[in-house]
Specification:
Blueprint: E1 6-7, E2 10-11, E3 17-22, E4 27-28, E5 41-46, E6 48-51, E7 54-57, E8 61-65, E9 72-78, E10 89-94, E11 97-100, E12 116-119, E13 125-130, E14 136-139, E15 151-156, E16 162-167, E17 173-177, E18 181-183, E19 188-190, E20 197-198, E21 204-210, E22 213-218, E23 223-226, E24 234-240, E25 251-257, E26 268-273, E27 277-282, E28 292-298, E29 309-312, E30 315-320, E31 323-326, H1 327-332, H2 348-357, E32 365-369, E33 374-378, E34 388-393, E35 399-403, E36 409-413, E37 416-420, E38 426-429, E39 434-436, E40 446-452, E41 463-476, E42 480-488, E43 508-509, E44 527-532, E45 540-548, E46 552-566
Parallel strand pairs: 4-5, 8-39, 19-24
Antiparallel strand pairs: 1-2, 3-46, 5-40, 6-7, 7-46, 8-38, 9-10, 10-11, 11-14, 12-13, 15-16, 16-17, 17-18, 19-20, 21-22, 22-23, 23-24, 25-26, 26-27, 27-28, 29-30, 30-31, 32-33, 33-34, 34-35, 36-37, 37-38, 40-45, 41-44, 41-46, 42-43, 42-45
Length: 567
C-alpha cells in the first residue's frame, strides 16, 4: 500500500514531483535483467525504431508491382555502368521465373480477384479493363524449393563487360547483360576428374566474385570452382573445402571480406558451411604460395538460406543459431563464448530461438538500406501471426522490430528500398501508410507499441511512487492517435494491446506540428499530449501504443508523481 511520509506521527501531504524520461534510443534489450537494464533501453518496441534523437515511426509500404506468378522471393537490383536512362534494372524472382519490375504500375490498373480493375487512382470506375501483369523474362523449369530464393552478384571483366548473375540451386545459373538480356551461360568447362567437360551450370547454387575471379558452388557440394582472372568462360578449377569443415554440411556460401571497407589486396575469401564452419583465406590464386588459410571458426549451424552473410563496412556479419557473428571479432579473437558482445547480443534471446526453429527455411537473409540507415534480418513467413523483422539502426547499433510488413525479401535500388511479398506482390518502402495499392485503397495507419525499461523516476528504488500525469513529447507532421500508460515493478504480464482501438477511452491525439527540415526534415516544433495515469510501485516503465498516418518521432516523456514511505 501507499504510505505517505509522517512527521511526529502525523501524515504529511506528499509533494508532487516531476521527472523527464528519454525515449528508448538504446533499443530492445533482452540481454540484461529487468532491474539492470539501462535507462535508455526498451523491453520491446514495434514499428517505433530507435534513432539518435528519439524513436521514429518506420515508413509505410505501398504497391510497386503485382501479378507476378508465385511469391516474390528475391529482389535483384542492377546498376548499369551507362548513364543513359533505362539501363538500370530491377528484377523480381519468384519460384516460377524472373520478371522485370523496373517501373511501377500506374493508372490504378490492378487486378481484383476476378481479374478486373474497378477504379483508377482518381476513383473513376473502369468497366472490364483487365490488368496486364509483368511478363516473365525467364521461366524456371522446376518450382520446388529453393527455386526463387537466389543469390546475385555483379561482375565486370577487363573488357568492361558488365554481367549480373543469379543462382538458386534448383534452376541453376543465369546471367544478364544489357545487350542480350537473361540467358544461361555458355562456354564454361571444368575437370571433375575424368577430363575437361561442360560445366553443370544447371546445378549452380551460389556465385560470387573475388579478386577478378568468379567462384561458384554446386548444390549439395562442399567444393567450389573458380575461373581464370577476368574470364567469364573457359575452364574452371576445383577447390575443395570439405576436409576443412569438421562440422559437416555443404558449402553454404563464399563471400569477399574487405577489412578496409573496399576492394584491394587485403581482401579475404570467406567460406561458410551449413554446419557452421567459417574458413578465411588470403591471396588471389589458390595455386600460388601466398594463398593460405588465416583462420577457421565454428559459429553454430546456419539456416538453409544462402543469404546469411553480408558486408558491413570493414566487417562481415554472419547469421547462425548463435545469432549474428562479427567476422572482425572472430579474427581478432574478441568474441566471448556466450556471444555477449555480438552485434545481435541484445536481441539474441529472441533471434537464436527463431533461427533454431527455422533452420530449414530459405527466407532468412541479411540486408541493409542506407537511405534510412538500417540493417535488417528478414525472417521466414509466419504462420497465423504478424510478420516480424529484426531491424538495427546502423549509427547506434540499437535494435527494434518491424511488425506487419508482409515481406519475404528486400533490396536497395537507386536510393529506395523494395520488398517482395506473397502472391506476386512487390512493395516500395515509403509513405506513411501500410498497404496503399493501385485500386484506390489509400492504406492503413501504422500501428506501433513500445515499453521502456523500468526505472525509479527520482533514482530511489526503495519507496513507492504513484504516477499522476504523463506528458508525451515528440515531433510530428500532423495528428497521431496514441495512449501512454505506466507499468510498475517489472510486471510485464499485462502487455500492451497490439492495436489501439480507434476512439478508445483514454486515447489522445498527438498535437499537430511541423516536420522539420534538419535532421528530422527542417525547422521543428514539438508536440506534446498530457494523459492521466494510475497505479503505484517502486519503479515505473512507460508504455505507449498507438497508430499514425503521419511521420512522427517520440522524444521522451515528462511524468508527475508523488512519493510515499519506505517499503
Amino acid at each position: 500500500m501507499f504510505r505517505p511520509y509522517t512527521r511526529q506521527g502525523r501524515p504529511v501531504q506528499p509533494t508532487a514531483q516531476s521527472a523527464s524520461l528519454m525515449a528508448s534510443v538504446g533499443g530492445v534489450n533482452a540481454l540484461d535483467s529487468l532491474m539492470g537494464m539501462p535507462i535508455n533501453d526498451a523491453i520491446f518496441t514495434f514499428n517505433l525504431m530507435p534513432v539518435e534523437y528519439g524513436m521514429q515511426l518506420r515508413r509505410g509500404y505501398q504497391a510497386w508491382a503485382t501479378g507476378l506468378q508465385g511469391d516474390v522471393r528475391t529482389i535483384v537490383p542492377y546498376d548499369s555502368s551507362q548513364e543513359t536512362a533505362g539501363f538500370d534494372k530491377l528484377f523480381g524472382v519468384t519460384e516460377y521465373g524472373i520478371y522485370d519490375i523496373s517501373s511501377p504500375i500506374t493508372g490504378g490498373h490492378i487486378a481484383t480477384e476476378d481479374g478486373i480493375c474497378l477504379t483508377t487512382e482518381e476513383g473513376d470506375e473502369i468497366v472490364d479493363q483487365e490488368y496486364v501483369p509483368p511478363v516473365a523474362l525467364v521461366d524456371f523449369a522446376d518450382q520446388t524449393d529453393p527455386s526463387g530464393y537466389g543469390v546475385v552478384t555483379e561482375w565486370t571483366t577487363d573488357a568492361s563487360e558488365h554481367y549480373l548473375f543469379y543462382a538458386d540451386g534448383q534452376n541453376g545459373l543465369y546471367q544478364y547483360t544489357e545487350s542480350l538480356g537473361w540467358e544461361v551461360p555458355s562456354g564454361w568447362t571444368y575437370d571433375p576428374g575424368s577430363g575437361s567437360t561442360a560445366f553443370p551450370v544447371e546445378d549452380v547454387a551460389f556465385i560470387a566474385s573475388h579478386k577478378l575471379r568468379l567462384w561458384v558452388i554446386l548444390k549439395d557440394s562442399d567444393d567450389a570452382y573458380y575461373s581464370d582472372v577476368a574470364s567469364v568462360a573457359g575452364d574452371f578449377t576445383k577447390f575443395t573445402f570439405g576436409a576443412k569443415m569438421p562440422h559437416g554440411g555443404w558449402l553454404q556460401g563464399l563471400y569477399t571480406w574487405s577489412i578496409d571497407g573496399g576492394n584491394g589486396m587485403d581482401d579475404y575469401l570467406v567460406g561458410i558451411s551449413r554446419g557452421g564452419d567459417v574458413l578465411v583465406y588470403q591471396g588471389s590464386d589458390p595455386t600460388q604460395p601466398d594463398w593460405q588459410m588465416v583462420g577457421s571458426w565454428f559459429i553454430g549451424e546456419t539456416p538453409k538460406s544462402r543469404r546469411i552473410a553480408m558486408d558491413y563496412g570493414s566487417d562481415m556479419y554472419i547469421l547462425s543459431v548463435y545469432g549474428i557473428t562479427s567476422l572482425r571479432d572472430l579474427l581478432q579473437g574478441t568474441v566471448a563464448e556466450i556471444y555477449s558482445n555480438s552485434p545481435s547480443a541484445k536481441v539474441n534471446r529472441f533471434l537464436r530461438t527463431d533461427v533454431s526453429t527455422g533452420l530449414d527455411r530459405y527466407e532468412w537473409s541479411l540486408t541493409t538500406y542506407p537511405g534510412d540507415g538500417f540493417l535488417q534480418v528478414i525472417t521466414p513467413e509466419p504462420a497465423n501471426t504478424p510478420y516480424i523483422q529484426y531491424c538495427q539502426t546502423l549509427s547506434t547499433k540499437a535494435w527494434g522490430f518491424w511488425e506487419g510488413v508482409p515481406m519475404i525479401c528486400g533490396a536497395s535500388w537507386l536510393g529506395d528500398y523494395y520488398m517482395g511479398g506473397v502472391d506476386g506482390e512487390v512493395y516500395l518502402y515509403d509513405g506513411t501508410l501500410d498497404g496503399t495499392n493501385f485500386c484506390g485503397f489509400v492504406g492503413d495507419p501504422i500501428n506501433f507499441r513500445t515499453l521502456t525499461s523500468f526505472q525509479p523516476p527520482n533514482g530511489n528504488r526503495a519507496t513507492n511512487k504513484r504516477a499522476g500525469v504523463v506528458r508525451t513529447i515528440g515531433l510530428s507532421s500532423g495528428s497521431a492517435n496514441m495512449r501512454p500508460t505506466v507499468v510498475y515493478d517489472y510486471n510485464i504480464n499485462p502487455m500492451l494491446p497490439t492495436v489501439l482501438p480507434a476512439a478508445s477511452a483514454g486515447a489522445s491525439l498527438w498535437g499537430s506540428a511541423v516536420w522539420g527540415l534538419s535532421v528530422w526534415g527542417g525547422t521543428t516544433t514539438d508536440s506534446a499530449i498530457k494523459t492521466g495515469v494510475s497505479g503505484m510501485g517502486r519503479v515505473m516503465a512507460i508504455g505507449l501504443v498507438g497508430s499514425s498516418s503521419v511521420r512522427l518521432t517520440v522524444v521522451g516523456w515528462d511524468i508527475t508523481f508523488v512519493e510515499g514511505g519506505l517499503m
